[in-house]
Amino acid sequence: MRAAPGANSSPSPLAQGLRFGDLSRVRFLLQICLGLVRDQTQRRHALSVLVVVALVMLFLGSTFLAQWLMAHVFWFFVFWFICMWLTILTFLMAAYDLLAVRKAGREAERRLRKQIFAKPEDE
Questions:
Q1: Which of 17, 21, 86, 123 has its Cβ near the most Cβ atoms within 10 Å?
Q2: In this model, does residue 85 exceed pLDDT 90?
Q3: Residue 4 domain-assigned?
Q4: Domain membership flag for residue 9
């Protein structure tokens, strides 16, 4: 099948798939996420920001924006989906933080036991 004269013959973005620039952006976002997950201080800062944003959205959505959201059903669902997504993300990050802290505690305990119960070299 031939394209109509004057039609754009370049393939669509869906047909092209991901380009190199898109992959570098994805890689960059993954590095940011890994940095947030690996560093406890950054992880806890992100958790506190997520909690504050979710609480502000909850407050605004149930008070000042309630009438407007009820009048615009699409935006109602988008708003509350984002609020729900932020809340679930907060719970998942908190669970990960709990597991990471427990793992670090077990490793510190193991090192301390090894250090305390190690045989002295002089004996």
A1: 86
A2: yes
A3: no
A4: no
pLDDT at residue 77 greater than cutoff 80: yes
CA 98 to chain CA centroid, nearest Å: 16
User: Residue 64: which domain range?
Assistant: 40-116
Token reading at 25? 């952006």
User: d(Cα 122, Cα 78) in Å, to the nearest integer?
Assistant: 70
CA dihedral 18, 19, 23, 28 (to 10 degrees): -120
Model pTM? Answer: 0.70
Residue range 39-66, pLDDT digits in tens: 899 999 999 999 999 999 999 999 999 9
Spatial CA neighbour of 56 closest among 27, 87, 33: 87
- In the numeric block, which tokens belong to residue 68? 């407007």
What gap in Å lies between CA 23 and CA 21, rounded to an integer?
5
Give the Cα separation of 49 and 63 in Å (integer): 21
Which pLDDT score is estimated for 73?
96
